[in-house]
Design the sequence.
């Protein structure tokens, strides 16, 4: 058992104080996490893991039914992706892009065809 009154010679903080500072309020767990110095704000910020489709920005959302939602996304270069979320039997995420819909060369065409597009796994679409 660790003595709660024990001090760290380098920081002069108690073990309890150090443990409290390592508690993540957002996730309610004790953590040690990577941080990076932000020179603009002069603070330490959490490092974040970008999602695989982080180059895309959401353009449209269609809650087509109680179990199917389409999320239309575009990137700065005109690339597009439609994410289909289907909860009819569990939750399935599938994706349509120009790679698995080669005749749909623009976002407008991809979005217009969202109900009939060919959808596949993330790796099949990107």
Sequence:
């Amino acid at each position: 058992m660790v003595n709660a009154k024990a001090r760290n010679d380098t920081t002069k903080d108690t073990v309890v104080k150090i443990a409290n500072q390592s508690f993540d309020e957002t996730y309610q767990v004790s953590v040690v996490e990577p941080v990076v110095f932000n020179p603009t704000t002069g603070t330490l910020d959490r490092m974040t893991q970008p999602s695989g489709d982080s180059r895309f920005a959401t353009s449209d959302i269609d809650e087509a039914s109680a179990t199917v939602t389409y999320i239309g996304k575009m990137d700065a270069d005109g690339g597009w992706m439609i994410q289909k979320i289907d909860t009819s039997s569990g939750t399935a995420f599938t994706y349509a892009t120009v790679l698995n819909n080669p005749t749909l060369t623009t976002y407008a065409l991809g979005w217009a065809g969202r109900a009939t597009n060919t959808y596949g796994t993330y790796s099949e679409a990107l």
